[in-house]
Fold this protein.
Amino acid sequence: MIASSNSNSAILKKVLFLSDLDGTWLSKVPKNRARLDNEILELKDEYRSRGVDLKFGYITARPPQRVEKENLPESDWTVTYNGAQINAGDPGDFDSAGNFVASSPDSGWVETNSRSGFSTEKTLEIAHELLEEERFCNLSFQTVGQVVNNPAADSNPFTTALCFSLDDIHLTPQEQVDANRNGIPDVLEKETFSAPEQLQELTEALSGRLEEQNVGHEISPVYLFHGKPIVMFDVASSVANKGDALQFLQQLEGVDPSNTIVAGDGGNDIAMMTGQNGTDEGRRVIVVGGDSKLVGAASGLRNAIVCPPEMDSSLGVLSGLRRHLDEIVGE
Protein backbone atom coordinates (compact mmCIF):
# COMPACT_ATOMS: atom_id res chain seq x y z
CA MET A 1 0.00 0.00 0.00
CA ILE A 2 1.42 3.38 -1.01
CA ALA A 3 0.69 6.01 1.61
CA SER A 4 1.38 9.62 2.45
CA SER A 5 1.96 11.42 5.74
CA ASN A 6 0.10 14.33 7.26
CA SER A 7 1.57 16.95 9.56
CA ASN A 8 1.06 14.67 12.55
CA SER A 9 2.98 11.86 10.84
CA ALA A 10 -0.12 9.64 10.82
CA ILE A 11 -0.22 7.23 7.92
CA LEU A 12 -3.00 8.09 5.46
CA LYS A 13 -4.47 5.78 2.84
CA LYS A 14 -4.38 7.49 -0.55
CA VAL A 15 -7.71 7.33 -2.38
CA LEU A 16 -8.48 8.63 -5.89
CA PHE A 17 -12.10 9.41 -6.85
CA LEU A 18 -13.11 10.43 -10.38
CA SER A 19 -16.67 11.16 -11.48
CA ASP A 20 -18.27 11.59 -14.87
CA LEU A 21 -20.25 14.85 -15.14
CA ASP A 22 -23.32 14.72 -17.40
CA GLY A 23 -25.87 12.30 -16.03
CA THR A 24 -23.67 11.57 -13.02
CA TRP A 25 -22.34 14.48 -10.93
CA LEU A 26 -24.63 16.99 -12.65
CA SER A 27 -28.10 16.20 -11.35
CA LYS A 28 -31.12 17.71 -13.07
CA VAL A 29 -32.28 18.76 -9.60
CA PRO A 30 -30.29 21.88 -8.60
CA LYS A 31 -30.55 21.33 -4.85
CA ASN A 32 -29.14 17.79 -5.17
CA ARG A 33 -26.25 18.97 -7.35
CA ALA A 34 -25.58 21.73 -4.77
CA ARG A 35 -25.56 19.19 -1.98
CA LEU A 36 -22.89 17.10 -3.72
CA ASP A 37 -20.87 20.23 -4.53
CA ASN A 38 -20.91 21.26 -0.88
CA GLU A 39 -20.36 17.89 0.74
CA ILE A 40 -17.44 16.68 -1.38
CA LEU A 41 -15.06 19.12 0.33
CA GLU A 42 -16.53 18.24 3.73
CA LEU A 43 -15.91 14.56 2.95
CA LYS A 44 -12.25 15.31 2.22
CA ASP A 45 -11.85 16.80 5.68
CA GLU A 46 -13.99 14.18 7.44
CA TYR A 47 -12.19 11.17 6.00
CA ARG A 48 -8.76 12.72 6.43
CA SER A 49 -9.49 12.64 10.16
CA ARG A 50 -10.34 8.95 9.67
CA GLY A 51 -7.05 8.14 7.90
CA VAL A 52 -7.87 8.80 4.24
CA ASP A 53 -6.14 11.24 1.88
CA LEU A 54 -8.91 11.71 -0.70
CA LYS A 55 -7.98 13.14 -4.10
CA PHE A 56 -10.94 13.76 -6.38
CA GLY A 57 -11.69 15.06 -9.85
CA TYR A 58 -13.92 15.04 -12.90
CA ILE A 59 -13.67 12.90 -16.04
CA THR A 60 -15.86 13.93 -18.95
CA ALA A 61 -16.30 14.15 -22.71
CA ARG A 62 -16.69 17.91 -22.35
CA PRO A 63 -13.97 20.34 -23.44
CA PRO A 64 -12.30 22.34 -20.65
CA GLN A 65 -14.35 25.51 -21.25
CA ARG A 66 -17.64 23.70 -20.66
CA VAL A 67 -16.31 22.14 -17.47
CA GLU A 68 -15.22 25.49 -16.07
CA LYS A 69 -18.63 27.05 -16.80
CA GLU A 70 -20.23 24.65 -14.31
CA ASN A 71 -18.48 26.36 -11.36
CA LEU A 72 -17.65 23.00 -9.81
CA PRO A 73 -15.85 22.58 -6.49
CA GLU A 74 -12.10 22.96 -6.79
CA SER A 75 -10.70 19.54 -7.60
CA ASP A 76 -7.33 17.84 -7.68
CA TRP A 77 -7.71 16.68 -11.30
CA THR A 78 -9.85 17.46 -14.35
CA VAL A 79 -9.92 15.00 -17.27
CA THR A 80 -11.61 16.27 -20.44
CA TYR A 81 -12.24 15.15 -24.04
CA ASN A 82 -13.10 11.63 -22.78
CA GLY A 83 -9.58 11.17 -21.45
CA ALA A 84 -7.51 12.97 -24.09
CA GLN A 85 -6.52 15.81 -21.75
CA ILE A 86 -5.55 15.83 -18.07
CA ASN A 87 -5.13 18.95 -15.96
CA ALA A 88 -4.02 19.27 -12.36
CA GLY A 89 -6.79 21.24 -10.68
CA ASP A 90 -8.95 23.34 -12.98
CA PRO A 91 -8.35 23.22 -16.76
CA GLY A 92 -8.40 27.02 -16.95
CA ASP A 93 -10.43 30.07 -15.99
CA PHE A 94 -12.36 32.93 -17.53
CA ASP A 95 -10.80 36.39 -17.45
CA SER A 96 -12.65 39.65 -16.77
CA ALA A 97 -13.59 39.90 -20.45
CA GLY A 98 -15.16 36.45 -20.43
CA ASN A 99 -12.37 34.80 -22.41
CA PHE A 100 -11.22 31.33 -21.39
CA VAL A 101 -7.56 31.14 -20.42
CA ALA A 102 -6.42 27.53 -20.53
CA SER A 103 -4.06 25.95 -18.04
CA SER A 104 -1.24 23.79 -19.31
CA PRO A 105 -2.28 20.12 -19.53
CA ASP A 106 -0.21 17.46 -17.82
CA SER A 107 2.99 17.19 -19.84
CA GLY A 108 3.42 13.48 -19.13
CA TRP A 109 0.00 12.69 -20.56
CA VAL A 110 0.64 14.88 -23.61
CA GLU A 111 3.88 12.97 -24.22
CA THR A 112 2.13 9.62 -23.78
CA ASN A 113 -0.47 10.51 -26.41
CA SER A 114 2.14 11.99 -28.74
CA ARG A 115 4.00 8.66 -28.79
CA SER A 116 0.96 7.05 -30.42
CA GLY A 117 1.64 9.09 -33.56
CA PHE A 118 -1.98 10.22 -33.62
CA SER A 119 -2.91 13.63 -35.03
CA THR A 120 -6.44 14.99 -35.27
CA GLU A 121 -5.43 17.09 -38.28
CA LYS A 122 -4.01 14.11 -40.16
CA THR A 123 -6.99 11.93 -39.30
CA LEU A 124 -9.43 14.48 -40.72
CA GLU A 125 -7.31 14.72 -43.84
CA ILE A 126 -7.46 10.96 -44.37
CA ALA A 127 -11.23 10.96 -43.73
CA HIS A 128 -11.75 13.59 -46.44
CA GLU A 129 -9.62 11.56 -48.85
CA LEU A 130 -11.76 8.48 -48.24
CA LEU A 131 -14.95 10.42 -49.01
CA GLU A 132 -13.59 11.04 -52.50
CA GLU A 133 -13.82 7.31 -53.21
CA GLU A 134 -16.89 6.18 -55.14
CA ARG A 135 -18.16 3.94 -52.30
CA PHE A 136 -18.30 6.91 -49.92
CA CYS A 137 -18.87 9.86 -52.28
CA ASN A 138 -22.45 10.41 -51.05
CA LEU A 139 -21.16 11.14 -47.56
CA SER A 140 -19.89 14.33 -45.99
CA PHE A 141 -19.13 15.00 -42.36
CA GLN A 142 -18.89 17.75 -39.80
CA THR A 143 -16.87 17.66 -36.63
CA VAL A 144 -18.80 17.69 -33.38
CA GLY A 145 -17.62 21.25 -32.76
CA GLN A 146 -19.17 22.36 -36.03
CA VAL A 147 -22.46 20.61 -35.21
CA VAL A 148 -22.81 22.25 -31.79
CA ASN A 149 -21.18 25.54 -32.90
CA ASN A 150 -18.45 25.21 -30.29
CA PRO A 151 -14.88 25.26 -31.69
CA ALA A 152 -13.54 24.24 -28.27
CA ALA A 153 -14.97 20.76 -28.81
CA ASP A 154 -12.51 20.30 -31.70
CA SER A 155 -9.39 21.82 -30.16
CA ASN A 156 -7.69 18.74 -28.70
CA PRO A 157 -4.97 17.28 -30.96
CA PHE A 158 -5.56 13.68 -29.87
CA THR A 159 -9.27 13.16 -30.51
CA THR A 160 -12.03 14.08 -32.95
CA ALA A 161 -15.62 13.09 -33.73
CA LEU A 162 -17.05 12.72 -37.24
CA CYS A 163 -20.77 13.44 -37.63
CA PHE A 164 -22.93 12.34 -40.59
CA SER A 165 -26.45 13.39 -41.55
CA LEU A 166 -28.92 10.49 -41.58
CA ASP A 167 -30.26 11.69 -44.93
CA ASP A 168 -26.89 11.17 -46.66
CA ILE A 169 -26.25 7.57 -45.69
CA HIS A 170 -26.90 4.84 -48.24
CA LEU A 171 -28.86 2.02 -46.61
CA THR A 172 -29.05 -1.52 -47.90
CA PRO A 173 -32.56 -2.85 -48.72
CA GLN A 174 -32.51 -4.78 -45.45
CA GLU A 175 -31.53 -1.63 -43.54
CA GLN A 176 -34.47 0.25 -45.04
CA VAL A 177 -37.02 -1.90 -43.18
CA ASP A 178 -39.45 0.27 -41.20
CA ALA A 179 -41.46 -2.21 -39.16
CA ASN A 180 -43.53 0.35 -37.26
CA ARG A 181 -44.06 2.50 -40.39
CA ASN A 182 -43.11 5.77 -38.78
CA GLY A 183 -40.84 6.88 -41.60
CA ILE A 184 -37.61 6.00 -39.80
CA PRO A 185 -35.74 2.80 -40.74
CA ASP A 186 -35.40 0.47 -37.76
CA VAL A 187 -31.60 0.61 -37.86
CA LEU A 188 -31.76 4.35 -37.19
CA GLU A 189 -34.27 4.20 -34.34
CA LYS A 190 -32.88 4.84 -30.86
CA GLU A 191 -34.29 1.59 -29.45
CA THR A 192 -33.19 -0.61 -32.36
CA PHE A 193 -30.14 1.29 -33.61
CA SER A 194 -27.53 -0.58 -35.59
CA ALA A 195 -24.61 1.04 -37.39
CA PRO A 196 -25.32 1.26 -41.15
CA GLU A 197 -23.02 -0.92 -43.22
CA GLN A 198 -21.67 2.04 -45.17
CA LEU A 199 -20.41 3.75 -42.02
CA GLN A 200 -19.00 0.50 -40.66
CA GLU A 201 -17.08 0.15 -43.92
CA LEU A 202 -15.84 3.73 -43.57
CA THR A 203 -14.56 3.19 -40.03
CA GLU A 204 -12.74 0.05 -41.18
CA ALA A 205 -11.17 1.92 -44.12
CA LEU A 206 -10.10 4.78 -41.88
CA SER A 207 -8.61 2.39 -39.35
CA GLY A 208 -6.75 0.59 -42.13
CA ARG A 209 -5.21 3.81 -43.41
CA LEU A 210 -4.08 4.79 -39.91
CA GLU A 211 -2.58 1.34 -39.36
CA GLU A 212 -0.64 1.65 -42.62
CA GLN A 213 0.97 4.76 -41.16
CA ASN A 214 1.67 3.04 -37.82
CA VAL A 215 -0.64 5.39 -35.96
CA GLY A 216 -1.92 4.13 -32.62
CA HIS A 217 -5.66 4.86 -32.56
CA GLU A 218 -9.09 3.84 -31.35
CA ILE A 219 -12.36 4.23 -33.25
CA SER A 220 -15.58 4.05 -31.28
CA PRO A 221 -18.68 2.18 -32.44
CA VAL A 222 -21.03 4.28 -34.56
CA TYR A 223 -23.74 5.89 -32.40
CA LEU A 224 -26.64 8.34 -32.60
CA PHE A 225 -26.07 11.99 -31.75
CA HIS A 226 -28.36 12.95 -28.90
CA GLY A 227 -31.33 14.96 -30.15
CA LYS A 228 -30.12 15.49 -33.73
CA PRO A 229 -30.65 13.52 -37.00
CA ILE A 230 -26.98 12.59 -37.00
CA VAL A 231 -24.86 9.51 -36.47
CA MET A 232 -21.23 9.76 -35.49
CA PHE A 233 -18.09 8.01 -34.32
CA ASP A 234 -15.02 9.11 -32.38
CA VAL A 235 -11.41 8.70 -33.48
CA ALA A 236 -8.64 9.20 -30.95
CA SER A 237 -5.14 8.31 -29.88
CA SER A 238 -4.89 4.74 -28.67
CA VAL A 239 -4.64 5.96 -25.07
CA ALA A 240 -7.02 8.96 -25.24
CA ASN A 241 -9.83 7.33 -23.30
CA LYS A 242 -11.18 7.35 -19.76
CA GLY A 243 -9.65 4.00 -18.85
CA ASP A 244 -6.08 4.84 -19.81
CA ALA A 245 -6.35 8.33 -18.32
CA LEU A 246 -7.45 6.82 -15.01
CA GLN A 247 -4.60 4.30 -15.12
CA PHE A 248 -2.15 7.17 -15.67
CA LEU A 249 -3.50 9.09 -12.67
CA GLN A 250 -3.45 5.98 -10.47
CA GLN A 251 0.26 5.61 -11.16
CA LEU A 252 0.93 9.33 -10.82
CA GLU A 253 -0.83 9.51 -7.45
CA GLY A 254 0.48 6.16 -6.27
CA VAL A 255 -2.99 4.75 -5.58
CA ASP A 256 -3.90 1.07 -5.45
CA PRO A 257 -6.81 -0.08 -7.67
CA SER A 258 -8.79 -1.06 -4.57
CA ASN A 259 -8.48 2.55 -3.38
CA THR A 260 -9.69 3.96 -6.70
CA ILE A 261 -13.34 5.02 -6.92
CA VAL A 262 -15.14 5.89 -10.18
CA ALA A 263 -18.68 7.05 -10.88
CA GLY A 264 -20.52 7.02 -14.19
CA ASP A 265 -23.80 6.60 -16.02
CA GLY A 266 -22.99 5.56 -19.60
CA GLY A 267 -21.18 3.16 -21.88
CA ASN A 268 -18.02 5.25 -22.20
CA ASP A 269 -17.57 4.92 -18.42
CA ILE A 270 -17.08 1.14 -18.66
CA ALA A 271 -13.40 1.64 -19.50
CA MET A 272 -12.83 3.19 -16.06
CA MET A 273 -14.21 0.24 -14.15
CA THR A 274 -11.63 -2.38 -15.01
CA GLY A 275 -7.94 -2.67 -15.73
CA GLN A 276 -6.30 -3.63 -18.98
CA ASN A 277 -8.11 -6.31 -20.99
CA GLY A 278 -11.22 -5.84 -18.88
CA THR A 279 -9.79 -7.55 -15.80
CA ASP A 280 -11.34 -6.81 -12.41
CA GLU A 281 -8.55 -5.14 -10.46
CA GLY A 282 -10.81 -4.29 -7.54
CA ARG A 283 -11.58 -0.71 -8.51
CA ARG A 284 -14.58 0.66 -6.65
CA VAL A 285 -17.48 1.56 -8.93
CA ILE A 286 -20.61 3.70 -8.57
CA VAL A 287 -23.25 3.30 -11.28
CA VAL A 288 -26.15 5.74 -11.58
CA GLY A 289 -28.90 6.11 -14.16
CA GLY A 290 -29.61 2.47 -14.93
CA ASP A 291 -27.83 2.21 -18.32
CA SER A 292 -28.15 -1.48 -19.22
CA LYS A 293 -24.63 -1.87 -20.64
CA LEU A 294 -23.03 -0.18 -17.66
CA VAL A 295 -25.12 -2.13 -15.16
CA GLY A 296 -24.26 -5.36 -16.96
CA ALA A 297 -20.55 -4.57 -16.91
CA ALA A 298 -20.68 -3.68 -13.21
CA SER A 299 -22.57 -6.83 -12.27
CA GLY A 300 -19.43 -8.94 -12.54
CA LEU A 301 -17.24 -6.67 -10.42
CA ARG A 302 -16.60 -7.32 -6.75
CA ASN A 303 -16.58 -3.67 -5.66
CA ALA A 304 -19.51 -2.17 -7.57
CA ILE A 305 -22.44 -0.21 -6.17
CA VAL A 306 -25.35 0.03 -8.61
CA CYS A 307 -27.82 2.68 -7.55
CA PRO A 308 -31.54 2.26 -8.38
CA PRO A 309 -32.31 3.81 -11.81
CA GLU A 310 -34.81 6.21 -10.26
CA MET A 311 -32.30 7.52 -7.71
CA ASP A 312 -31.05 11.06 -8.33
CA SER A 313 -27.59 10.92 -9.89
CA SER A 314 -25.88 13.43 -7.56
CA LEU A 315 -27.32 11.75 -4.48
CA GLY A 316 -26.30 8.35 -5.86
CA VAL A 317 -22.71 9.54 -6.28
CA LEU A 318 -22.67 10.95 -2.76
CA SER A 319 -24.15 7.83 -1.19
CA GLY A 320 -21.89 5.46 -3.13
CA LEU A 321 -18.78 7.49 -2.38
CA ARG A 322 -19.45 7.45 1.35
CA ARG A 323 -20.08 3.68 1.33
CA HIS A 324 -16.84 3.00 -0.52
CA LEU A 325 -14.87 5.30 1.77
CA ASP A 326 -16.31 3.60 4.86
CA GLU A 327 -15.19 0.23 3.49
CA ILE A 328 -11.69 1.56 2.79
CA VAL A 329 -11.44 2.97 6.32
CA GLY A 330 -12.53 -0.37 7.76
CA GLU A 331 -9.93 -2.41 5.89
Q: What stands out?
A: Residues 3-114+240-330 form a domain with the Rossmann fold fold (CATH 3.40.50.1000). Residues 30-48 form the longest helix (19 residues).
